[in-house]
Write a structure and sequence with these properties.
The chain contains 23 helices and 3 strands. By secondary structure, it is mainly alpha-helical. The chain folds into 2 domains: about 350 residues, no CATH class; about 60 residues, no CATH class. Strands 1-2-3 form a 3-stranded mixed β-sheet, with helices on one face. The protein is globular and about 80 Å long.
Amino acid sequence: MSLPIPTSKNSFPRLVAYSLLFLIFSGITLRPYVQSGFWYDDVVSSQVWGMVHRYGLSIWAFTWKMFATSPDSGRLLGAYLEMYPLFYFVHNPVFIKLIDVSLVLINVACFGWLLRELKASRGFILTFAIVFVGSLQLRDFFEAIGAFSTLYPSLGIYMIVSLVLLAKWKNTFQTKWLYASVAVVAVSLFIYELNVIYFPVALLLVLSQRKAIRNTIASLSIVVVPAMSYIALELWIKSHASGQYEGTTFGGMSLVLLTLSKQLIAGLPGSFYAFRGYWQVPYPVLLNTFENSHSLWLLGGIVFVLLVVSTRRETIACRIDWFAYFCAAALIILPAVTISMSAKYQKEIIWGAGYLPVYYQFFGVAFFLTAAIRAISTYSPNAGRVVMVMIIALYIPLNVIVNHHMRDVLDAGFWNDRVSLQQALRDGLLNPVQDGDIVDTKGLPPWIGGDLIYQTVQKKVVVPGEIPFPFLHLDPSASPNHFSLEKSGSGWVLNRVAPN
């Protein structure tokens, strides 16, 4: 029987055709992520070029200082070593977003590698990839793919690769794979703490294997010693920190179940629209937009063709190893549990919009949805399968419409004012201002300040109330002029003001 991604010489043209169709599908589906500005932390982090030059630093000195001082908040954040150099050298948001979505697709490929290691068919893997990419939801809340400078896609790659190596150890019992798996996840823990969820998965897998006690103890030590070392390091850092990040402090037990429910539901396809998006993009508007968009009809057609091929009973059928189900369940439950215990997120999470680790949950949910699709294709290969494929081929374009709308909402909140101000700066808005003058930005978003001004027109001004990092300081000139920068309608106004 032929597979959806054939491997024989005679099947090469079909391989090329399916690959091109999937690339077109990914391009249309992920376009809202690519054609967007900087959001959330990225709107500040993307000004790092202006920041380091404004304060007379080098990017490497600044980045290392940020990493070295991160334990002051009770956590070790190696993510700074990746984030700031990226934004220093790459200023165009389109290039940053292309890197983001490329990492997401690499992450999907890694999960496909994991599934292949655990005996999934190529049809199952292709179906999973379509379900995962097509179910991604942009929300008016913290965004794991469109913001936070590649952090979660990068973490996801580390996590999935470590699970692949763990699966190799399960299949071969060669200790080198277990060592490699733990080493990969250990590296990721120095970037961000989320991948600590790996250790329960590895421990339960080791304990589930029927091996001699001595071998089991040896395998356990490979996992337990790094886990305990990391926990000890984290506790030591917290005990010596001058402050504590609320996101990693425990909240009230009475709110755990409610927060867990919100985070779990946020991982389901369409959850944002069901709770928050329906009033922003009413269903009749969705259908009307779909009816009048050639690219969305093309997208629906591509999804239909790919799923018709990948969900054939002889193509998608496979006996997947139990460890795949275990990993998928862990990716759904463990991130949600960590979020549910956090004091910060117990207060912030809203229905339909989970916090950033929902990105991991998408992988587990997409896996179980693909398993359900496989069951339908097996037991109702004609009518049931066709109806299912048509529903998915309709849902994905509608989801893309919602994502386009939310892209515009997020751009309006984070990006559009910055773009218009930068254009005004280039057109001479600050011509009367000299280095060392004081420019008041009171009433403007906190990401509009001296760093953005320097990054755009290289003027070193002092902004009252600006909160730089503790090790940064800038004094005004001996006799500075005072100005106020204000937004007026769709434009910007600079006023000279008397000093206080």
